[in-house]
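Changelog note: in this version the structure field was regenerated for every chain. One regenerated record is shown below for reference.
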Amino acid sequence: MVTLVSERNPGDERDTLLAFLEAQRGGIRRALLGLTEEQAATRPSASELSLSGLVKHVAEAEQIWVRHAQGLPPVVHRDESTWKDSFRLLDGETVEERLAHWETVAAETERFVRSVKNLEDTFPLPEAPWFPKESVSMRWLVLHLIEETARHAGHADIIRESLDGKTSFELVAMEKGEDA
């Protein structure tokens, strides 16, 4: 985890936004508690989503967006032929390694968001028909990361409950070492 919510200033907008983002990340991480690599790769629904694939995807997406806002090229370039690879672990990739990578990405996100002078500062969006504007604010960036991560945290809840019936309440208790 990057920064504990209790260590943040609840009156500060950046702290609040970063706390919401971290809370959504936590939902995805908790969905993996106690699972084997095989279980994490299971796709228990009509969707091709798995928990291990979601971890990989959200880390890649977060890193791509932050690097774009920084004016840097993506570390991993995805196109139509490799897009699905962002949703599954490839040979040699493990859940533990993907979680560690995501932690590094999350720390970079927090450093970057805290370094921006003003959340109203803007950066250009990549050209795509689904982007309604040419540029967006840093605030938009963090809200978009919250939105993306929250969407996939919901997917993670459904996948985990489909695997073994564990709900987010049980997983929070499990994370704390308590009985649900």
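Spot check on this record: The beta strands are 122-124, 135-137. Residues 45 and 159 are 7 Å apart (CA to CA).
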